[in-house]
Write a structure and sequence with these properties.
Elements: H1 13-27, E1 34-40, E2 46-58, E3 65-72, H2 76-84, E4 86-93, E5 98-109, H3 111-120, H4 123-131, H5 141-155, E6 165-179, E7 187-192, E8 201-205
Antiparallel strand pairs: 1-2, 1-4, 2-3, 3-6, 4-5, 5-6, 6-7, 7-8
Helix pairs in contact: 4-5
């Protein structure tokens, strides 16, 4: 598409997304990899929360790739995503005046990949993952700290990844790249496909 140049240029949306994230890493004050993650409950009521994107996977072709974050599978988002098998998110960078929107299909990331990421986290974060019954009622901060002390005694200085904690991979069916334009005449390009195995179709959208 000749109209698609500059920051929108390229034939692989995952490469473009990674380039934009790399640019944001140089300009955003905090958490350039923060995403607003949306899921729906059994009644179709949406839920949105901020999480950290940990990897943009890139394959051999522009059709291969995904976005990965990690969570407690028993959390509200974990249960909702397991039920629906779908999720969406947006990354927005004020410093760049850009955003990326993604909608797609979800699957768990477990085994060596999840183990390696868990091992890379700080010890306190790993123990916190064991201690927190995420999204469940908590009587007090003291009760949480007591649980941290308990799991520290149980798991020691090198805790393994909890069986209820791991990654979620979002394989996109739609990716939109948005950049701010003067007088709200923004630039928007959307990549769409019917399935994870289909070729991408690219369109410019009205702002």
């Amino acid at each position: 598409m000749s109209d698609r140049s500059g920051i929108f240029a390229g034939d692989n949306p995952f490469v473009i997304a990674q380039t934009w994230l790399d640019d944001a890493t140089e300009t955003e004050i905090n958490d350039p990899n923060a995403i607003a993650l949306a899921s729906v409950d059994a009644d179709g009521l949406p839920n949105v929360r901020m999480v950290l994107l940990k990897e943009i996977e890139q394959g051999a072709t522009p059709a291969d790739g995904a976005f990965v974050f990690y969570t407690n599978y028993g959390s509200t988002k974990g249960q909702e995503i397991a039920l629906a098998g779908k999720a969406a998110f947006v990354m927005h960078w004020k410093s760049l005046r850009r955003q990326v929107r993604v909608r797609g299909l979800c699957e768990r990331v477990e085994g060596p990949q999840a183990d390696a990421y868990f091992a890379s986290r700080s010890l306190k974060s790993r123990l916190g993952a064991w201690a927190s019954h995420q999204s469940q009622p908590l009587s007090s901060r003291g009760a949480l700290m007591a649980e941290v002390a308990k799991v520290t005694a149980q798991h020691g200085p090198s805790p393994k990844r909890p069986p209820f904690w791991g990654g979620i991979r979002i394989t996109p069916l739609e990716i939109e790249f948005w950049a701010d334009g003067a007088f709200r005449l923004h630039d928007r390009f959307v990549w769409r496909r019917l399935s994870a195995q289909s070729d991408w179709q690219i369109q410019r959208l009205n702002p």
